[in-house]
Amino acid sequence: MTGLTADLVVDGREPQTPALAPNGRLLGYVLAPISRAGDHLDTELWLVDTDGVASRRATADTATESRPRWSADSQTLFFLSDRTERGTPQLHRLTLADGTVTTCTSWSGGVIDHLPLSDPDLVALLAEDEPTERDARRARDRDDAIVVGEREPRTQLRLLDLRTGQVVSPQGFADRHVVEVRQRPDGGPLAVLTWASADNDHGPRTNQLHLFDPTSETAENLGPVAVDARSLAWWPGDDGWHLGYVALTPPLLQAGTAVFDLAVESRVLRNRTAGLSMCPTELCQTDTAPLAVFADGLNTTVARLDHTDLTTLSHHPGRLDNLTATPTGDTIAVRTGARYEPPNVHIGAPTGPLRRVTHTRPELDGITFGTQQPLAYRAVDGLDLDGLLVLPVGRNASEGPFPLVTIVHGGPYDRYADRCQLFWFPSAQWLAAAGYAVFLPNPRGGQGHGHEFAASVAGRVGQQEWTDILTGIDLLIAEGVADPDRLGIAGWSHGGFMSAWAIGQTDRFRAALVGAGIVDWGMLAATGDNGQFEAALGGSTGWSGIGPHPHDAVSPISFASQIRTPVLIVHGAEDTNVPLGQAVYLHRALRHFDVEHEFVTYPREGHAIRERHHQLDLLRRTRAWFDRWLQPPAGRTPVDGSPS
């Protein structure tokens, strides 16, 4: 039986963005590698016959292909590809009748997104302005001073006439940044979602909805919508057309999504998911009532958003996303997996069951994974919590205690679902293969348990969510699963924050991994991509007066003098979400206090690590770090050639 290696983890390919043809007979999807070996991520466009399991590659080029979308008659599949000029995607169309692929655009800046319209000759495009002669001259002369607010790139709505190849840029959006477009199912106007600018810190707070008539090229502003609105969907009601979207529940800026229902004629807006104990993640438009996906504890629920009710259709283990449906809503396709099976495309009725129609990682079929089981327990204040426990490969709980690594999820508005826990970042099955038990907690502040649960950590990060995690660890110690003398903690992003926070609060952990983690909330609010969101989490900003500031009390750097745990710090050098300065700050503090640590930066990487050799290094380095501090002095035989 083959053992799990780092190469097996990062060299796989997974399906993305399935697109179901309106007639339900074919499905297109993108097959993407987990890691990038060169300068570009080479992806492939594939087709599946939905009445069987036969898959075939639709194109043969070496390119980055993405965003498959079908024409209304199911005869043409539109997609983006940079086959002509790498790094510059253009719209292409695959004609099923003869299998030919045609390039539809030559937009110099590239196309960002597209939507085939009910008029078979029109496609809506999202693209930035093409460079002008003056821009080219300034670039040649290096007259390239950047003035914030001036000439900032904004994505605009364009209309492509397939008969002539002409692209026109309608007016009516006041130079706003267009982020999403959805046409009414009857072929009527487009719903257009815009931001005031492309600045991710500012833009999502300035959402506005518009109606656009592609025939007359006129626009109507429907006014502002909730923060971080996305996933537009139309449906007809007794009182006219409704337009729905998923957004943050006011006044929150960092968590707690809801489905909002706007009656277009009356402008009456309703929160359709208030009071639910699950959290909406996406909407899928049909001709009648949209389908909604909900994070529901460790699992997922699919429901239909009827005019007055929310009707539950099916429950699914683990995580389900990328929902696509036929116009009738009778057939859906999704990306989902299982505890010991990575994500694949599944098809079926929205009421279930769903059958798998892709099998993109056969190399994992012979791998034995660690037993994964759900956990349910209560916080110290009685709040119901859940999480996952993954045991060492080939072991059961009665054979404990084991060295235990707790991996905290990011967000914090994310969750662990009961799915296969194998990823390029330090993950449960990767450590279970090396003899570790792994605890994956879902503390308050995350997704899957309703609005109040999600909203509870705003301005109070590291408080009750930290005791929620500790309670789970203590439970595993009491049950004989975890060795109290061999505890480790790890996390990425907000999980990295929790790891850094933990070792400033206690010396119970023998080793820690801080991946792309936050150590100073005030600095993150000032420099990160999502400053206002981070300020809501940390509770204040540096410009809130001379202090003391609330964010200082919840920033791990404030407790650096108390850290004694050996720390592995890893960070992408080009991370703009959580900038590298956060890791440098922690490194300098640990060096100042003479704390054993290792600081690793990955060149060219952002918040996620993409390059193959960097992913391999991260996996091997992580396991070696925990082996060094948590395994018995005699050590063990390293797996996958990892240093020990």
From TrEMBL:
Pfam families: PD40, Peptidase_S9. The keyword Protease applies. Residues 428-631 form the Peptidase S9 prolyl oligopeptidase catalytic domain. Gene3D superfamilies: alpha/beta hydrolase, TolB, C-terminal domain. InterPro entries: 6-blade_b-propeller_TolB-like, AB_hydrolase_fold, Peptidase_S9_cat, WD40. Keywords: Hydrolase, Protease, Serine protease. It comes from the Bacteria. SUPFAM superfamilies: alpha/beta-Hydrolases (SSF53474), DPP6 N-terminal domain-like (SSF82171). This is S9 family peptidase.
